Amino acid sequence: MLDNSGFAVATEALISQLGATMPEIQFANAMYPLIAGAGMVVGGLTGLFLGWGRQLRLGALLLAASAAIAALAPNMDVLIFGGRVAAGLGAVFLVPAILAHVAGLYQGKDQAIAFAGIAGAVGVATAVVPLLMGAALDAFGFTISFFGVTAYFIIVFLTTFKLDAMPKAKFEGKFDIVGVILSSIGLLATIVGLLKISEWGLVAPISDTTVFGISPALPLVAFGIVTLIALLKWEASFEAKHGTALIPTTFIKNKQVLIGLYLCAIVFLMFGSLFINIAYVQLVGGASATAAGLLMTMFAVGMILGTIIAPSKMSNMTVRSVCLLGFFISFVGLIIATFGITETGVNLLQYVGLTIFGFGVGVLMTQASITVTSALDQRDAEQSGGIQATSRNVGQAFGVAVLGSVLMFSLTGSLKGEVNAHEALSAETKEAVLAIPALPFTSNEDFQALIAEVTSDVQEQQVILSINAEARHSSAIKTMLVLLLIVGSGLIICRGLPRRSLMQNKQ
Question: pTM, whole model, 2 decimals?
Answer without folding.
Answer: 0.79
